[in-house]
Amino acid sequence: MTQQARYELLKTDKGHPVKMWTRGVPVEEEARRQLANTAQMPFIFRHLAVMPDVHLGKGSTIGSVIPTVGAVIPAAVGVDIGCGMMAVRTSLRTSLRASDLPDSLGPLRSAIEHAVPHGRTAQRGRHDEGAWGKVPEPVDSVWAEMAADFRRITDKYPQLARTNNRSHLGTLGTGNHFIEVCLDETDAVWFMLHSGSRGVGNAIGTTFIALAQQDMRRHLANLPDRDLAYLTEGSEHYNDYVFAVSWAQQFARRNRELMMANVLAAARRVIGKPFSTEAQAVNCHHNYVQKERHFGQDVLVTRKGAVSAREGELGIIPGSMGARSFIVRGKGNPESFCSCSHGAGRTMSRTEAKRRFSVADQVRATEGVECRKDAAVIDEIPMAYKDIDAVMAAQSDLVEVVHTLRQVVCVKG
């Protein structure tokens, strides 16, 4: 194994090679079996690439990079279409640092929580706390730019019009989605957030996963897993899916931009010192599919919990609550299809984390971070995730670390 080739090969009986950047990190057997199933699909291009945060996922393995020719697997893209990260650093010119933050960070957290709808009402009623009651004008302006293409989708799939599309634009969601205030290695202040295409992306993903599975039944396709149902280029729903998934990815990107604008405005109301932000913000998907050129051929690359890491490209690899996060620069490693991990990666299910840990454990694990410390967020406890330092070491040939961040405020849905 050369110095450049730090991956290991997954042993499989048949199918394409599976190259795994997992040295020094645990990989569950269920995830290995799921990867082996995906590798059997005939339209895989060359090999699968597996990132060190790999773990079992619904539909496809989280932390996998799946290049395909002539087909796409909707369940591999998933239902959190366009989920990703955005981070901005406060400008060096204004030099906002840790000492400029208020002594008590509770008001800053509260201001962010009031500025960005987050969470959801348990019954998911019409007055969902995770959606806008009255959609603000900046959100409506962005929605106006996207509405025509959305109508093109809903003209053919009218059920998608019944989602909280417009009222979810600029909102956070639940689960592992978050907003953070962080400090880097120089104590400069950063703002970072994690979210995707919300309810409308979920509905698009769910709709086309079902359509792909219907197609497989119609053609009596023999799949190793029903979640590997695919749409072939030229088939009835293929172009519709490619268009819809691209729209959802754009929704996710604009969603993060709108949230970040509101987070910064909220922070300015609480932080006494005026500040601006760097012109270059990092805004990257980690659940998506797009056409790229690799090894001299145009292919569709599905990144399921993975980030593009082309040479010189900036990305974000967050740790868990209470763990460090990283701004990285891609090294353009062709064997990984120019990809890296999207985070630390879970070591156990949310149900298992809630069974195993207590609120007292959560309080200890997030000491020094202004965040929720209650039973509803135990599933996000740092101990439910892999060691982020081991994850970073396993992919040292994929990215270099530009900044190391530690959070001081964390908002969860």
TrEMBL record:
It comes from the Bacteria. GO terms for molecular function: ligase activity. It catalyses: a 3'-end 3'-phospho-ribonucleotide-RNA + a 5'-end dephospho-ribonucleoside-RNA + GTP = a ribonucleotidyl-ribonucleotide-RNA + GMP + diphosphate. Its EC number is 6.5.1.8. Gene3D superfamilies: tRNA-splicing ligase RtcB. Keywords: GTP-binding, Ligase, Manganese, Metal-binding, Nucleotide-binding, RNA repair. The keyword Cell cycle does not apply. Its cofactor is Mn(2+). It is an enzyme of class 6 (ligase). InterPro entries: RtcB (IPR001233), RtcB-like (IPR052915), RtcB-like_sf (IPR036025). This is 3'-phosphate/5'-hydroxy nucleic acid ligase.
